[in-house]
Design a protein that fits this description.
Layout: H1 7-10, E1 12-13, E2 20-21, H2 28-34, H3 44-51, H4 69-77, E3 80-85, H5 89-108, E4 116-121, H6 128-140, H7 154-157, H8 159-162, H9 168-171, H10 176-191
Parallel strand pairs: 3-4
Antiparallel strand pairs: 1-2
Length: about 190
Amino acid sequence: MYGGRGLKSLVRRSKYRNLDIVPSMAGLEQVNRESDARGLDANELRRQIDSVADRYDFVVIDCQPTMQFLTISALYAADLVVVPFKAAGFSMNGLELMQDYLADAAQQRHYDSDLLYACLPVMFNGRKKSIDRIRRLMELDAYAVFDTFVRFSAVCENAEDQSVRKPLLKHRRKSKVAADYLELTKEILSVMGE
């Protein structure tokens, strides 16, 4: 997987119950750059996840918003892809491109199940223009959109809040954005049949 090490050896226990992580590493950028030259298989991540599947109910992969090898590997490994977007022009335009990537990933991956995805409105400000854009998406039926919207919150944007390195529910449990993420979690569990 990375430097000849499998996923099992990269997993780290966190101090939070039922939460393990695989921390990002600077060398992963090199994997992105060298993936073609080294003939890396984008389906390997799914095989690695399958090797630890008996230990976990869910695996969440957070990707950077670029379509490089590691992101493509995550698409190949996914059961459900959450596509965050702001209800603004450029972000909305990116959804069409993302839909093409998802269709390609669904055909290229060596995993025999449907690749589900839904768009998640984030940094939602409640303005009429934003609501109209999201309604248009839903009416066109071109994109699945979560019922849950994650509102804009300084709690998530503030560098001081980000530096505490705690889950949102441990750091700002009573914030409105924490309530949004709890609702999103319930909706995802429902989509996944849990």
